[in-house]
Design a protein that fits this description.
- This protein has 346 residues and is mostly helical.
- The protein has helices at 15-47, 87-98, 107-135, 143-171, 179-190, 199-227, 235-252, 254-272, 284-295, 304-341; strands at 3-4, 55-59, 64-68, 232-233.
- β2 (55-59) and β3 (64-68) form a beta hairpin.
- The model is unreliable at 6-11 and 277-281 (pLDDT under 50).
């Protein structure tokens, strides 16, 4: 299955088909990338045991989620017993002693938000890109940059309060049935804008990442098509273009990722202690200044290799699966139209 290097017509596939393609890509990406993060967290817990009220970031390949450590509960997946000498050893021992399903520990709850966020993001990007290209005569190559940035703002704005509420429910050991009361309490104590606390640092990382990613992806895909003398991008072309553009964007936005992660953890731990979030001095600038004071400028680039290893494959898997799905539906739609145009089928 191949996808067009050039822009598909707006009627090529429907928004619903775009959603199905992006949903399929999101689920596949999570299934393939999550085991890497589960193993990383298990190795972290082995060297620095997670204590009550402490938080860690769990990534399912689509987005980051804040997880609160539970007190005295040795049954939770990240506190399971085991001694690992390294990543490969951890993979082998987890599968052997706990079963292969353990590699996806903690995944289902995070998919509730990650999949819809990804569907919104990719569908909005495609729709915006087509609309912008129709209006940007002579500068259509810039459309992916703007479409990617705008689509990311939209998805982050929708999901940010939901993620904050999920963390609050977890810290207070409340069920989703108590969601309404949780939102009411948060709004009464700090106002509606408190639901978007942490929105700024997330945008500082995700919007530049998205703009660079889509611009470089479309450029890279067109260049590889030209090099291979083809008008259609193969699965390999979309996979490599996605990996390369994801790697470039992840390196360029790494300082914002470090700041965002630190601030996310600090806010989560304040919630766990039932402290007012307004007591936190962790503005984006203050967190960045603190990191530089503690570790120097190099501190802003901490975790360079792990982020690269995680982001590049995730981007490659997601975009190649998404493009494959779109090409599949595009072909199906064309065949359907041809059948309808045949005599006797009007």
């Amino acid at each position: 299955m191949t996808s067009k290097c050039h822009e598909m017509t707006p009627g090529g596939i429907t928004p619903v088909q775009q959603m199905v393609a992006s949903c399929s890509g999101a689920i596949l990406t999570s299934l393939l990338v999550t085991p890497l993060d589960v193993v990383k967290i298990r190795l972290q817990a082995q060297h620095n045991p997670f204590l009550k009220g402490r938080c860690f970031v769990y990534c399912n390949g689509l987005m980051d989620h804040l997880c609160l450590c539970e007190n005295g509960n040795s049954k939770v997946w990240y506190k399971a017993p085991g001694h690992f000498s390294g990543t490969l050893d951890a993979f082998i021992k987890i599968i052997r002693h706990e079963g292969i399903k353990s590699l996806w520990s903690g995944l289902p709850p995070t998919l509730v938000m990650a999949v819809p966020a990804t569907v919104i993001y990719f569908t909005c990007y495609d729709q915006l890109c087509v609309a912008l290209k129709a209006r940007m005569e002579g500068q259509t190559e810039m459309a992916p940059l703007f479409a990617g940035a705008i689509a990311r703002v939209g998805s982050v704005t929708v999901i940010s309060p939901l993620e904050l509420i999920r963390t609050k429910l977890q810290s207070q050991k409340q069920s989703y049935r108590e969601l309404g009361a949780c939102i009411r309490t948060a709004v009464e104590s700090a106002g509606w804008l408190s639901l978007w606390r942490g929105w700024g640092p997330t945008l500082l990382r995700d919007v530049p990442f998205s703009a660079m990613y889509w611009y470089n992806y479309e450029k890279g895909k067109a260049w590889m098509c030209e090099r291979n003398n083809t008008t259609e991008a193969t699965f390999a072309i979309t996979f490599l273009s996605g990996a390369a553009s994801g790697a470039i964007a992840s390196i360029a936005t790494l300082p914002f990722d470090v700041v965002k992660t630190r601030r996310q953890v600090e806010l989560g731990e304040l919630q766990a202690l039932n402290l007012s979030l307004c007591k936190s001095s962790s503005s984006t600038w203050s967190v960045m200044s603190r990191i530089v004071a503690e570790s120097g400028p190099r501190g802003l680039f901490a975790g360079f290799l792990p982020r690269l290893i995680k982001v590049a494959p995730a981007c490659a898997i997601m975009i190649s699966t998404y493009e494959f799905g779109k090409a599949f539906f595009h072909k199906q739609n064309q065949e359907t139209r041809l059948v309808r145009l045949q005599p006797g089928n009007s």
